[in-house]
Design goal:
Elements: H1 19-24, H2 33-42, H3 44-49, H4 54-59, H5 63-70, H6 73-91, H7 95-98, E1 107-110, H8 126-141, E2 145-150, E3 158-161, E4 167-170, E5 182-183, E6 193-198, E7 201-212, E8 215-221, H9 230-233, H10 244-264, E9 271-275, H11 281-294, H12 298-307, E10 309-312, E11 323-324, H13 326-340, H14 344-349, E12 362-363, H15 364-370, E13 374-377, H16 380-389, E14 405-406, H17 413-416, H18 419-429, H19 432-435, H20 440-443, H21 451-477, H22 483-488, E15 498-503, H23 519-526, E16 533-538, H24 546-561, E17 568-571, H25 576-585, E18 588-591, H26 602-608, E19 613-617, H27 622-625, E20 631-634, H28 643-667, H29 676-689, H30 695-738, E21 743-750, E22 760-768, E23 777-786, E24 792-799, E25 801-806, E26 808-816, E27 823-831, E28 846-847
Parallel strand pairs: 1-2, 1-9, 2-8, 9-10, 10-13, 13-14, 15-16, 15-18, 16-17, 18-19, 19-20
Antiparallel strand pairs: 3-4, 5-7, 6-7, 7-8, 11-12, 21-22, 22-26, 23-24, 23-27, 25-26, 27-28
Helix pairs in contact: 2-6, 8-30, 10-11, 11-12, 12-30, 21-25, 25-26
């Protein structure tokens, strides 16, 4: 039976508690401890039942219950107190507005998933949670940012295990009207809708808003009756669901539709930040808009787009960078490429490394790299790996000069820090740590926290974790457990023993089963009567990742086979709520990916701010964070060519660490029952990591290094109806067409005999430029260590000066010997223009001898 009309009935809140609704519709509450407690006080049981969703909580309260709540003076006073905090936060003048380099304009942050809170299941893992933390710190810092994403009707799947331990998936329908979402409407009161052209006709999406502190997050939902094709209604049904064609459709809605949604909302961003390749089509739609508005051709408009667009890649695994087959892609973009005024081949070239290879697919990462001036990986090691991965695009340059830099990820500290720890930080670091989280000087005061106070606070968190695990097991398995099993659930885990946490996506490269490779050794470790150990595991495998699902099943079966069910617990249905309990209550956070496939690994940062000590392979963030005193390293960063051999070596190292170092350190107690040396590690873990790996530092880095320069560059390119964009585009076209006439005719190098550190090597180069002018290029001496195969590795460059120009051009200069060793020196020519973002942006470089 279908309704004739539809409407939403909201709860009628008594006047003196009406502010609850405003708080419920702003996710600020989820990182304010008092605000979370406020909603829990409404009805603690219902608060848990609705998965900590404040809107659903209020909807589930009867009118008499709300009236009764309004008569509770303590509750009303507490509500007023929390709301005063909220208003003070919203009305404050934060960092960005007072920054001397800040520019006016909006930044649009595109991401396929956003992890704000477990009550909003629009995320699958680290990428989404990072995006959510990015929004929260942008709000804290007052960065003028808006989020753009997709709103999934079923979100990501809910996980449960079959009797044999194999993962099963269940998809739960999200009721958007019972979530902190606002449907955006036009001036006629109708849903605000955008459309995109797809092969079977137009696909429509309506726009919803989620408020995250000061930052609005706009999300598109295709489950609207305007879509008469069911396939199009299902585009936003599931996060990472469907087939490859569904993914094309989702990414068109996210990128092209996202830009159109901003336009429909009256938002014209100066800067777009593309979080992974999923949103890369946004750069094309921005360009199309500029072409229409300013009447300019594609390549000129693209210069403006590049100037104001940032691309962040998170994937060090080649298979994780999405590539669409050409025959699948073409029906979607044959008409769109015409709107861009470029041929089909020109369009396909935007997504190819080798533009002459007709069989190469269309890479979303390549599209993101080619249409942006600012590109970054998410840890120092990942930045290096990314430069190697995409060296083919800049093959004329050394790998370390591939123009992809690094901004290391972080975490939103207030979301992830335990209340008990936050209270200690207030007392000993002063509350200033809350507003200046990334200040390393503040975190040095962690040493002033009495060891006993820190240890007792951590013990309380471990007790809370154990209690949570027991309740979680009952809640997830109540219908399957016998009365006897329900009675013994309190025997699972022990709040007083060493607790290891391992929680992440069950991709095979993360090697979740490494600790289970020698079960006899693990059993002795776990059941050691003097130094026992318990392990809590959580995580999901993608529904189509059969090897990942097999890993979960294999771990479950091994644990049962060795009788360790009460000591090693797998928590089903991992989400942000489970994660918060684990990172706050575990003693050890274990991470053992196969290096260098972990791009960042932010879960370890969340554990670190709570004094949970990191034990990890030197990969991702830990490669730059580990200092020998703040945690433990599995190996020395070696990468063996044989994966099986690498696994065996790393497993042996991990067992040795646990048996010989970690467990003795944990159980070495003084007269006050405090493990002093362990607490010393905890303090160093917090002190060295909490500030450096916060999203407050990360967002400041993005603002200073990318957002502010991109705003100025975009405005500069856009000025005078895009005159500078026209100049640089025509100059580039001229240089590319004339580059075959560029070469180093003759090279003279002197000073290498008897050279010492500090010596100058003198270089004189005679170059031919054809029809180009000396001001169109830069001539550089390049020197570095020579490898066994005769190549210069990680050299440095020094500019040469033009001393004569008459048909043939002579450049001279010197380069200093900064260190000793077997050196090589050569000369190269690169294009140069004041409006070029990077010398490598034209992919052109001519070396002596070519």
């Amino acid at each position: 039976m279908k309704p004739i009309t539809k409407f939403v009935v909201a709860p009628s809140l008594p006047k003196n508690i009406a502010l609850l609704k405003e708080l419920a519709y702003n996710y600020w509450w989820c990182w304010n401890a008092d605000a979370k407690e406020l909603f829990a006080r409404v009805d603690r049981r219902k608060w848990d039942d609705v998965h900590h969703n404040p809107v659903a909580l209020l909807q589930n309260m009867s009118q008499p219950q709300l009236e009764d709540l309004s008569q509770q003076r303590d509750f009303v006073h507490f509500l007023d107190h929390v709301y005063a905090q909220f208003r003070a936060y919203m009305d404050d003048q934060p960092w960005y507005g007072s920054s001397e380099n800040s520019s006016e304009g909006t930044i649009a942050y595109f991401s396929a998933e956003f992890g704000i809170h477990e009550s909003f299941p629009n995320y699958s893992g680290g990428l989404g949670v990072l995006a959510g933390d990015h929004l929260k710190s942008s709000s804290d810092l007052g960065v003028p940012l808006v989020g753009i994403g997709l709103l999934y009707q079923k979100g990501y799947f809910r996980q449960y295990l079959a009797q044999d331990g194999m993962q099963q998936e269940m998809f739960v329908y999200n009721d958007f009207y019972s979530m902190p979402l606002t449907l955006m409407k036009n001036e006629r009161g109708e849903p605000l809708v955008i459309d995109v052209d797809l092969p079977k006709g137009k696909a429509y999406a309506q726009i919803w808003k989620v408020q995250v502190g000061r930052v609005p997050l706009y999300m598109m939902d295709t489950n609207t009756e305007l879509n008469t094709v069911q396939e199009y209604r299902d585009i936003t049904a599931q996060l990472y669901g469907g087939n490859q064609e569904t993914r094309i459709q989702q990414e068109i809605i996210l990128g092209i539709g996202g830009v159109r949604a901003l336009k429909a909302l009256g938002i014209t961003p100066k800067v777009c930040h593309l979080n992974e390749g999923h949103a890369a089509f946004a750069a094309l739609e921005r360009t199309r808009n500029l072409m229409t508005e300013l009447g300019m051709p594609f390549h000129q408009a693209m210069e403006i787009t590049r100037a104001g667009t940032i691309f962040t890649t998170h994937t060090p695994v080649p298979a994780g960078n999405e590539i669409f087959p050409i025959d699948l892609l073409q029906p979607y973009f044959s008409g769109y490429s015409s709107q861009l005024g470029i041929s089909g081949e020109e369009f396909l070239a935007l997504g190819r490394v080798d533009t002459s290879n007709q069989s190469e697919g269309f890479s979303m990462t390549v599209l993101g790299l080619k249409t942006t001036n600012y590109r970054n990986g998410v840890s120092k090691l990942h930045g290096d790996v990314t430069q190697v991965m995409w060296h083919g695009l800049w093959k004329n340059f050394p790998e370390d000069e591939v123009p992809i830099t690094t901004i290391t990820n972080g975490i939103h500290t207030h979301t992830w820090v335990a209340r008990e720890l936050a209270e200690l930080y207030d007392r000993y670091l002063t509350p200033e740590w809350r507003n200046d989280t990334d200040n390393p000087e503040i975190w040095k005061e962690v040493d002033d926290i009495p060891s006993e106070a820190l240890w007792r606070a951590h013990q309380r968190r471990r007790e809370t974790l154990v209690s949570f695990v027991r309740k979680h097991l009952v809640r997830k398995h109540k219908s399957l457990l016998t009365p006897q099993q329900l009675n013994t659930v309190n025997d699972y885990l022990d709040p007083d023993i060493l607790t290891i946490g391992f929680a992440r996506r069950f991709a095979t490269y993360k090697r979740a089963d490494l600790l289970f490779s020698d079960m006899d050794r693990l059993r002795r470790l776990v059941l050691n009567p003097q130094r026992p150990v318990q392990i809590i595991i959580a995580g999901k495998s993608h529904p189509k990742d059969i090897p990942g699902k097999e890993t979960i099943r294999r771990i479950i079966q091994r644990v049962r086979e060795y009788g360790l069910d009460r000591n090693i617990i797998f928590l089903e249905d991992y989400d942000m709520g489970v994660a918060r309990h684990m990172v706050k209550g575990c003693d050890i956070w274990l991470n053992n990916p196969r290096r260098p496939y972990e791009a960042s690994g932010t879960s370890g940062m969340k554990a670190a701010v709570n004094g949970c000590i990191h034990v990890s392979v030197l990969d991702g963030w830990w490669d730059e964070a580990y200092n020998g005193r703040n945690g433990f390293a599995i190996g020395l960063g070696e990468e063996l060519p044989n994966p099986d051999e690498q696994d065996a070596v790393d497993a042996g190292t991990l067992y040795n660490l646990l048996e010989r170092v970690i467990t003795p350190l944990f159980y070495d107690r003084g007269p006050n029952r405090v493990p002093e040396q362990w607490v010393t590690y905890m303090k160093e873990c917090i002190k060295s990591n909490a500030g450096q790996f916060s999203t407050m530092r990360m967002v400041r880095d993005y603002a200073r290094r990318f957002y502010m320069p991109a705003m100025k560059g975009y405005s500069n390119m856009l000025s005078d109806h895009g005159e500078k964009a026209r100049q640089i585009q025509q100059w580039k076209q001229h240089v590319v067409s004339a580059w075959n006439g560029v070469r180093v005719q003759n090279l003279e190098v002197s000073g290498g005999d008897n050279a010492e550190v500090g010596s100058e090597i003198f270089v004189r180069a005679r170059v031919e430029l054809g029809v180009l002018r000396p001001e169109d290029i830069r001539v550089q001496a390049y020197m570095g260590n020579v490898t066994s195969v005769g190549e210069i590795l990680k050299g440095s460059s020094s500019p040469l000066k033009l001393i004569h120009s008459d048909g043939v051009h002579i450049f001279e200069g010197s380069i200093s010997c900064a260190d000793s060793g077997y050196k090589g020196c050569t000369v190269r020519i690169v294009p140069s223009h004041p409006l070029m973002a990077n010398d490598a942006d034209l992919y052109l470089c001519t070396w002596a001898g070519q």
